[in-house]
Sequence to fold (131 residues):
Amino acid sequence: MKQIPTDRITNPHITELMEDEIFVFGSNLQGMHLGGAARIACRWGAIMGQGVGLQGQTYAIPTMSGSVASITPYVDEFIRFATLNPNMRFLVTEIGCGIAGYTPADIAPLFREAVSVDNICLPERFWEVVL
Fold:
């Protein structure tokens, strides 16, 4: 098993962001950011009614649309976006592991490609699955 890169572990209790940091959270397609990390994201610019993509210092990944397979294209798009924006540091929360009801074992494999993207930080429980 590889060593978890400690400088790329998302703090589970984010209360502030640096200027270049982006809070990555699970959302619903309707962009109703009413609970969990989505509600917290509103303090950094998450837009009610926008369920996908960059919003202020946040990035929404829909996790409430039915299955892990339905989340995959949104995670893939996020990883592409992060790769194209190396000046930003993306702090991925445990998306899908709260209100959506998934576990890190369900969601973390979707982030395997993120392991090689230096500006993406993952929750420790995701790292434990992908390494």
Observations:
- The radius of gyration is 13 Å.
